[in-house]
Specification:
The chain is mainly β. Helix content is about 5%, strand content about 60%. The chain has a 22-stranded antiparallel β-barrel. A hairpin with a 4-residue loop joins β10 and β11. The radius of gyration is 24 Å and the shape is globular.
Length: about 500
Amino acid sequence: MNFITKQNNNCLFNNFSVACVLFLLVYAQTAVGKLEFSPTLTVSETYTDNVRLGGGLIAGGAGGIGFGGAGASGGDFITQINPGMLVTGEGRRYEVNAQYVMNNLIFAKNNELTQIRHMLNANATTEVLKDLFFIDGDARILQQNVSLLAPQTANNVFATGNRANLEIYSVSPYLRHRFQSFATAEARYTRGFVKSGFNGFINSQRDSYQFLLNSGSAFRKLGWGFNYNNNRIHLDRANTTIELESYIGNLRYNLTRRFALTATGGYERNSFISIRGKPSSPTWTAGFVWAPNKRTDLQFSAGQRFFGDTYSATVNYRTRLSTWQIIYIEDITTLNQQAGQFGALGALNVGSIDAQNLLLGLSNFLTNRVFLQRRFNASVTLNGTRNDLTLNVFQLKRKPYTAEELDEDLLGFPLFFNDTRQLGGNVAWRYRLSPRTNFNMNFSFVRFDFLSVNSTNDNLFFTANVTRDFFPDLIGMLQYQRIDRLSNIQSGNQDLDLSANAVTVSLTKNF
């Protein structure tokens, strides 16, 4: 069998970042503590009645642009043989977590789709000099949906032609010091890389500088702080550097032990060519922090930035059997920054669909542009003796602030992405049939609105599976999956089937 490994011709690891991660691993071995290496092997068989999910819906555009390619719909058997390794370690001055999976996909009828995909999720942190010098490292390889216009999936089983390999690396040395009860200070440098072999995506390098100075416990009534941030993102092929810089001072006045007023003020200096006016201006916010009891905390702020009014809010509420959360965040950002802040755009998800990771993965798409992102998310998790229930809803709005020409080769139809809005939600239920058997069900809905052209894509996902621990180190799964996509975007072939059913049987062995 000839495995297609075109993406492996490129260097999978950036030498600088991987060297730093390896340093952390070697340091961990010599520090007080231990590392544990746990090999794993998952073997699965999937049958689907629509292996391509209508890939190629947008002729010459989003369909067929990633690995897998476009083509006629049809059923297929997909065998997966996925060896992997889990590395964990914890000591007095280090922590390491790494998971690697080699995703080998063998298509019975469509041999040209047979391929190998690498997945990596690794991070490590170490305290080199006690209470002073630290290093964080992160290395990830994953597959990401390229475009919102084409079929959306959370794994590589479906050959939609809308998935691309993405490599994310970063290393961050920093100094942290406490000036007794007066203040704490941190100076951090981060070197980050985002790479892909996908045509049209521009690899980028990020140099981030951050300095924080915040008042200590000596300031009980009036707290203060200063935050300096400088992000320089270099787009390799475009030979362009984007600089995002801010100087922000903050104050916190504690009216009571549980309620405080907050304020920030400063200046943003951004050096990208904006299509929506001047990208630099003074900035300010005012708000409050309230923790009425031990189970509840709220934060809210409102103010002005160069793009107009700005808001931020967080609500957390916890009981013995439930967790409630509401978040609203908005910021000017890039894909490189997002990858660095939030790690992978999706988790290692080889054989099943996880509700939260599905939504996180679908809400992102590849772009070379600077954009304003506004995100609202509300979730509740209820935990019982035998039942766990999670409800989640979100809205994500993106508005580009740099020219569409940067994405013209990447997406084919850049005008679709002038303004996008995504609405979604999911219900996930887990029922423990017995101490070793679980039933899991998830229903997710995600709508993509392309506001500039009044077009919509609706994506529906249903998954139900039963997992069984035959032995402590041997886990079996039987899963059914249904995917539907409803689109009012016209295509050259209106007979394409945009729905699919899939049944998967898998065994996972932990050594």
